[in-house]
């Protein structure tokens, strides 16, 4: 499938937000006591692990673009058995965790902006995946977008 300008827009905004996230802004901060530090570290570690495992599971199907790669296959095993976009979940968890750990409202706001972007990017991606994989709409019914569906 051919990439469109939307593909480049989503990826471009995503990388701009990543770059903005790492800017050391200390204007909007809070004292992140022990509880926030522990929650932050746990979210950061789980998010990094989830992201890494998801990337490994996608293997040759990995692309930063929402349009599926030519000749790719639908992965419905591993983390993808429960979540349609575990890489996005891993990124969000990692960034939120670090934001909490560092007491940075700025980093938390950037993470929330990424959540909105990933929501729209994933909706676009799922339209494309449904065109390529006839089984994708059924897969969507069984799995959650960013978190497992409740039983």
What's the total helix number?
Answer: 5
Global morphology: globular
Distance between the termini: 34 Å
What summary fits the major beta sheet?
none
- Number of β-strand runs: 0
Structural class: mainly alpha
N to C succession of SSEs: HHHHH
The total domain count is 1
Q: In what range is the share of β-strand residues? A: under 5%
Structure description:
With 151 residues, this protein is an all-alpha fold. The chain has one domain (8-22, 33-59, 75-142). 62% of the residues lie in helices and 0% in strands. The protein contains five helices and no strands. It has helices at 5-21, 34-58, 86-102, 105-132, 136-142. The longest helix has 28 residues, at 105-132. Its EC number is 2.1.1.100, 2.1.1.334. This is Methyltransferase family protein. The chain crosses the membrane at residues 7-30, 36-58, 104-120.
Relevant terms:
151 residues; mainly alpha; 5 helices; globular
State the gist of this model.
The chain is mainly α and 151 residues long. Helix content is 62%, strand content 0%.
How does the SSE layout of this entry go?
Blueprint: H1 5-21, H2 34-58, H3 86-102, H4 105-132, H5 136-142
Helix pairs in contact: 1-4, 2-3, 3-4
Protein name: Methyltransferase family protein
Membrane topology: Multi-pass membrane protein
GO molecular function: protein C-terminal S-isoprenylcysteine carboxyl O-methyltransferase activity
């Amino acid at each position: 499938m051919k990439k469109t300008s939307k593909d480049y827009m989503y990826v471009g905004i995503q990388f701009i937000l990543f770059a903005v996230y790492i800017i050391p802004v200390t204007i909007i901060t809070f004292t992140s006591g022990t509880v926030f530090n522990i929650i932050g570290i746990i979210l950061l570690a789980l998010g990094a692990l989830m992201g890494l495992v998801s990337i490994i599971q996608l293997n040759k199907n990995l692309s930063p673009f929402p349009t599926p790669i030519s000749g790719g296959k639908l992965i419905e095993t591993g983390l993808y058995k429960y979540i349609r976009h575990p890489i996005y979940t891993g990124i969000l968890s990692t960034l939120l965790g670090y934001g909490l750990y560092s007491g940075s409202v700025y980093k938390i706001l950037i993470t929330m902006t990424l959540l909105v972007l990933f929501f729209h990017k994933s909706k676009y991606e799922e339209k494309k995946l449904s065109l390529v994989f006839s089984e994708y709409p059924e897969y969507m019914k069984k799995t959650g977008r960013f978190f497992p569906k409740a039983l």
